[in-house]
Automatic annotation (TrEMBL):
<protein>
    <submittedName>
        <fullName>MFS transporter</fullName>
    </submittedName>
</protein>
<feature type="transmembrane region" description="Helical">
    <location>
        <begin position="310"/>
        <end position="329"/>
    </location>
</feature>
<dbReference type="InterPro" id="IPR005828">
    <property type="entry name" value="MFS_sugar_transport-like"/>
</dbReference>
<keyword id="KW-1003">Cell membrane</keyword>
<dbReference type="InterPro" id="IPR020846">
    <property type="entry name" value="MFS_dom"/>
</dbReference>
<keyword id="KW-1133">Transmembrane helix</keyword>
<feature type="transmembrane region" description="Helical">
    <location>
        <begin position="177"/>
        <end position="198"/>
    </location>
</feature>
<feature type="region of interest" description="Disordered">
    <location>
        <begin position="1"/>
        <end position="26"/>
    </location>
</feature>
<dbReference type="GO" id="GO:0005886">
    <property type="term" value="C:plasma membrane"/>
</dbReference>
<feature type="transmembrane region" description="Helical">
    <location>
        <begin position="287"/>
        <end position="304"/>
    </location>
</feature>
<feature type="transmembrane region" description="Helical">
    <location>
        <begin position="366"/>
        <end position="384"/>
    </location>
</feature>
<dbReference type="InterPro" id="IPR036259">
    <property type="entry name" value="MFS_trans_sf"/>
</dbReference>
<feature type="transmembrane region" description="Helical">
    <location>
        <begin position="341"/>
        <end position="360"/>
    </location>
</feature>
<keyword id="KW-0812">Transmembrane</keyword>
<dbReference type="Pfam" id="PF00083">
    <property type="entry name" value="Sugar_tr"/>
</dbReference>
<feature type="transmembrane region" description="Helical">
    <location>
        <begin position="210"/>
        <end position="229"/>
    </location>
</feature>
<feature type="transmembrane region" description="Helical">
    <location>
        <begin position="143"/>
        <end position="165"/>
    </location>
</feature>
Length: 474
């Protein structure tokens, strides 16, 4: 697919937008922005509810019922985390597919498809037979559903954050676009509540045999609500204008030198620095997050023998606190800039694990909470501003592709492997120090990427599109 890029003053050139990324001042537009944020958050809550549910179940349930028994508990956990990693491997594929069609046909429609696929695959996970019933078919079915779930999730995030970022005022894009990020702790909060209630009301044997399935089945309720909300919003004016431009250009395409491609391959060709920078920004944040909310459960429950209900209760409070903090950090990025906030988070990430593991190793509630809360705080500094800064790296015609590729590909080598690497290091060395060094290395990657980042606070998305047109005319 191609478009013919004409002069900024041509009929298919730049159209000056009066809304979309323009400053929002009237209450009607504000109300529209609230609806967009709600629609974006609805799907992202589903995404993270289900991903955190799976991550927790990998440690507490899947390692015991979907794989053969083993005297070493770490073996089953690593096997379960491997199926967990499959979802991350599928995410770039989903990001590429959804981004291609999302840049062409709109963010809204792709988001509706994504939320249905995520919800359906998660519900079916709750229906799976165990290893003792069907043998190796059980983990095979789990992997298949996890892969399908990962494809849909891969397309979800980019569309959700861009739906908000492209509607947001230039001077407040960091704040508004951070709300979909706040859906991460909110989704995890819901998943933790469900797991906590189940662990309180059921015996360990009941939870292991059938109780865990309830959490997966409940996802259908959240999906129905999220899908309905997403039917009530439209794509941003800046995207609608770009979409019209693409259609007009394609209709009059004469195949001359002004023709350029859009999509993943084009963004990799024209904006490699933006893609690599986005991947670097994502690396340390992604590793840190899964160390805090996934590996910490393994470390506390298996190596420190802390009660599961206590762990979930602590994480519940920590997630609630992070939900409150994310928009504040987004607002901060609008005031002081994207780079200072991101750089502070990456720098603190160098030291978090060295402070956290001694606290986690006490096995006491207050030190554990401090360790997890510090981790989520550092994570928020690197995470809250990502939608705004990534949206400001790419033009509208390939923004979905650039954002999704940079965000999702990194998840393969970062978040998907983090619990596996950490579990293997801890099991082999019987010490948390190698794990802490691994986390510090990941933070260092993000710190270097942040130093190479261009400050984009307050930039107009129309100006990015205009610069992209001029670049293609050369």
């Amino acid at each position: 697919m191609s478009i013919q890029q004409q002069s900024p003053t041509g009929t298919a050139g730049h159209r000056s937008s009066t809304t979309g990324s323009a400053d929002v001042s009237d209450s009607t537009t504000k109300r529209g922005l609230y609806r967009v944020v709600s629609a974006s958050m609805a799907g992202t809550i589903v995404e993270w509810y289900e991903f955190f549910l799976y991550a927790t179940a990998s440690t507490l349930v899947f390692s015991k019922i979907f794989f053969p028994e083993n005297d070493n508990p770490a073996v089953g956990i690593i096997a379960a985390f491997s199926t967990y990693a499959v979802g991350f491997i599928a995410r770039p594929l989903g990001g590429v597919v959804f981004a291609h069609f999302g840049d062409r046909f709109g963010r809204k429609h792709l988001l509706q498809v994504a939320i249905v696929i995520v919800g359906s695959s998660t519900f079916l996970m709750g229906c799976l037979p165990t290893f003792h019933t069907v043998g190796y078919l059980a983990p095979a079915l789990l992997v298949a559903l996890r892969f399908i779930q990962g494809i849909a999730v891969g397309g979800e995030w980019g569309g959700a954050v861009l739906l908000v970022a492209e509607h947001s005022p230039n001077k407040e894009r960091g704040y508004w676009a951070s709300w979909p990020q706040a859906a991460l702790p909110l989704g995890n909060l819901l998943a933790t509540i469900v797991l906590l209630v189940l662990s309180w009301t059921l015996t360990d044997d009941q939870f292991l045999h059938w109780g865990w399935r309830i959490g997966f089945w409940l996802s259908i309720v959240i999906v129905a609500v999220g899908y309905y909300i997403r039917t009530k919003v439209e794509d941003a004016p800046i995207f609608q204008e770009t979409q019209q431009e693409i259609e007009e250009s394609a209709a009059g395409d004469s195949g001359d030198n002004g023709t350029v491609q859009y999509g993943v391959f084009e963004v990799l060709k024209k904006y490699p620095r933006g893609v690599l920078t986005a991947m670097g920004l994502r690396f340390g944040e992604n590793v840190l997050y899964y160390m805090v909310v996934t590996f910490s459960i393994t470390y506390l429950s298996v190596w420190q023998d802390v009660d599961t209900s206590s762990i979930l209760g602590i994480i519940l409070i920590a997630h609630f606190c992070q939900f409150l903090v994310v928009p504040l950090v987004g607002r901060l990025s609008d005031r002081v800039g994207r780079r200072p906030v991101l750089m502070t988070g990456a720098f603190l990430g160098l030291f978090w694990a060295f402070a956290a593991f001694p606290l986690l190793s006490t096995g006491r509630t207050v030190p554990i909470f401090i360790a997890l809360m510090l981790g989520l705080g550092v994570h928020t500094l690197m995470y809250a501003g990502q939608p705004a800064v990534m949206a400001e790296m790419f033009p509208t015609r390939m923004r979905y592709a650039g954002v999704s590729f940079g965000y999702q590909v990194t998840a393969i080598i970062a978040g998907s492997l983090a619990p596996i690497i950490a579990t293997a290091l801890l099991s082999h060395f019987d010490s948390w120090i190698p794990v802490a060094l691994y986390v510090a290395f990941a933070a260092a990657v993000t710190l270097v990427s942040t130093m190479a980042l261009r400050e984009t606070r307050g930039v107009r998305l129309e100006d990015i599109d205009a610069a992209d047109r001029e670049r293609n005319l050369r």
